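Here is a typical sample entry:
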Amino acid sequence: MGVVVIDGSTVRSFVADEEQFKKSVNERFAALDLNNDGVLSRSELRKAFESMRLLESHFGVDVVTPPEELTKLYDSIFDKFDTDQSGSVDLEEFMSEMKKIVLAIADGLGSCPITMVLDDDDDNFLKKAADLEASKFEKAYS
């Protein structure tokens, strides 16, 4: 388990490093593409969001949301990703939306640092942003 401190500039630097950001998005896309067909289906993307429990809890407290409301929310998220309305999300669409989401997180953080406790094997974008910043400091001071 590790502790990282990040702010909006940390997250923006991660997105600006196109090679690292693209690699991270490609890895996440591949992990979500359960049937390896090169696109994300509605159910694959929903499973990913369900695993994050973003809509089923409020500040860590479980909330009861009617299933039909959850379906509407997940469908709305899918439609946002599926920009060409093909019924699936390709890597380019996924990358574009993830970039928007990560930059929105950076905007929300602004210049106010936050401390996060993460498992060492945690593979989320904010951890990758912190790791990238740490590697830059390591290089600068070694």
Remarks:
- Strands lie at 2-6, 39-40, 57-58, 61-62, 89-90, 114-118.
- Residues 91-109 form the longest helix (19 residues).
- DSSP finds six helices and six strands in the chain.
